[in-house]
Write a structure and sequence with these properties.
By secondary structure, the chain is mostly helical. It has 22 helices and 6 strands. It has 4 domains: about 55 residues, no CATH class; about 110 residues, no CATH class; about 110 residues, no CATH class; about 220 residues, hpI Integrase, Chain A (Orthogonal Bundle), CATH 1.10.443.
Length: about 550
Amino acid sequence: MKTSHPAIGRYLWDRPGSRSIWFRMAVPKQYQGQDGTKIIQRSLNTADRREASILAGKFRAELFEQWRGCVVPNEEDLEEAATVVGYEMELERMDAGRVGMRNSSISLFDANVGWHQSELRHRMRAAATNDSKTVSYLADEIVDALGWMLPKHSDGYARLCELFRLAGAVDASTDNKLIQRVGQRLGEAAPAGQTILELFERFAAEQLGAGKRPDTVNGKRIVVQMFADCVGNDRRLAAIGRDEIRDWRNAIAALPRNYRNSNAYKNLDMRAAVAKAAVLKGRTIDAQTVNSKLSALSSFLRWAVRNGYADTNGCDGLFVDADKAANERCPFTVNQLNTILGSPLFKGFLRDGAEHKPGNVLSDDWRKWIPLIAMFSGARIGEIAQLRVSDIEELHDRWFIHLRDDTKTGQHTKSRKNRMVPVHRKLEGIGFLRFHAAQVEIAGGDETRQLFPEMVANSRDHIGAKASKWWRRYLGKIGVKEEGDGLGSHAFRHYMADELRTAGFLDDQFGPLILGHQKGSVTGKYGRMPQGTATMLCEMIDGVKFDGVNFNQLCDQA
């Protein structure tokens, strides 16, 4: 007699009274409509557990393949099916019948018309009395033909029958709201090859051909994808109204900050995230970010207007008033810098993944050096993350960091220009050149080797994304950063701008040369204080004294 094993393995069941092991699995909620059951049970016809485990795995895979091949129709799918099959195809059949009577006698023609009138009255009676018997065969045929997951007992099946009744109770000059609604929707459908995202790819190709940066184009792609998900990708651009763009903008403004990276909003689409954010009452996207996304969509719509795919740019006039002063990012304070440099990352941490906890592990990789280079150079995280060993160069008895914009090497700067920033004497003193020499030795003559090989570009082609995200989280864990305060690696740039002004340099001087701004006036947005060849660059960097900042711990490690 076979002994019962209550827990013999996942999906395996020792069914009482059976000689064989059974497969048993709960049907995922989204697939429960297919056969109306919540639990699937089936004999595996074997008492061998190893064989049963293999068979169970195969059967489970077959079930999921079958379920994924089915579609659960939404309200629009049901309406269109009922209209096309119950109305348009019926009209075509009636028209064909009348044409076929062209050479028949008057009596036969009258009989044909009488039959159709009788059928129409029959359909109208069915619609008025909620009688689904006359249309259930149509529902069965469409469900089978389209592979819909719509069992007869479901609400969706009942709704389909109801729509068939409504669609069939009309004549050729219908004023039926269902027919009008579906007709309008089908009239808004994009022609083949002209869905929103298909048109965007044409726009993207032109942008890249004109020399736009791939990460810039990818950023616009993400925004347009969000828009298409909201209004419907298969819509004609010309059919999308200004009110829909306004509603999308308002939805963007109601999104929580960084909702895509938050577990609280995992797997939620934009509308669901907005609804949940209203309940959680967290911080939402700021006005400048809303305008940034609206600007990305606007550039695509301008292109669409020029190319005849849209009549107007619905984004015009929809940009929100943004208080830049309210969103201005602040530099690190001296106290914050001392907290950072005195934190476990730079003094000794517990282990990888717990860099904020004290311990005896010392880092000598990107976690340590990318923030320090940002502090002493004012460079952006992405510009630092892409550095190669050959980008640290010695010129005129001084070491420089060469921040490159080169399509051949895949390196980029925001200004799209190269610049050289001298290595600060304090950065030398805490061991950066020693670290660089070690990386050169590892490279073994390969000058293209990355200085920080752990840095890999993400899906948006941002090579500094990993470091930037990690650094923001680290600042939060050591108590320097609060959610939504704007502090991150950029605060080093603001601090550098303030220090350069304190040293007597003007924004128009250090903005393009040190910080990499296209125009000196842009630098005026950095920091809080008013404004003021190789030698000049060194004078600028050496003028930054970091008064009050304690580097003793780092110098002891050098």
